[in-house]
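=== RUN LOG ===
request id: a7f3
mode: sequence -> structure
chains: 1
length: 232
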Amino acid sequence: MTSLLYVDPLAYLPHKPVQKYAKNRIIYDVQHPAIDLYLVIQGRVKIGTTPNDGLQTVIRIVRNEGLFGEASLIGPMNRTESAIAQDIVTLMSWSRNEIEQQVDGEPRLGIALAQYLVRQCLDLQDRIESMAVHKTPERVMLALLQLSADLGAPMPDRSLRVASLTHHTIAEFAGTSREIVTSQMNRLRRMGLVRYSPKQIDVHAQALRENLTQKGIRVSYAAKSTAQIVGR
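=== RESULT ===
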């Protein structure tokens, strides 16, 4: 049986003028839902959701060459998702009609977007299982592994360096409080599993994985390579 190869959606999206957003600027929220599919050219965007209890959870943080705003492709509906610029960000965006027209002319874009959405669903499933099954210390460790896999840059000592993430943001990602994250980060620093300062966090991902594996916890996060934009 022939396996389905990964198709890069960025190879089939047409070039558009870029948009720039200041740090902490809201790109869309509950009052103004997403109407476009966005590509991050530079910077990071925090994607969160605020359910009826009013407590925000960070779904993911999207970096360079990542897509977000996928809900715009299914049309108007009640949504709780928001997107906020984590840094000064530069974006490209396409409307639903533009995406549909592009898929009509290049069906491989439809396959690429379907693959991308499935991967996002699988990552979110892992997150939900982690929050439901594991205790807070392990959730914080798993959150650091996923964040470093998604956002980290490799360092000479084989750690992954993540630029300035607040303990509050990590808490929203792990589903706990800032105070607990600060306590756990101090614990992990004493264990030599992380180093951090206001500017960055260095995560020793392999050592974190081994620590969790010894506790019988399956770890599926691995460092992700950055896709190449074709034709940019």
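=== NOTES ===
The radius of gyration is 18 Å.
The chain has a mean pLDDT of 87.
=== END ===
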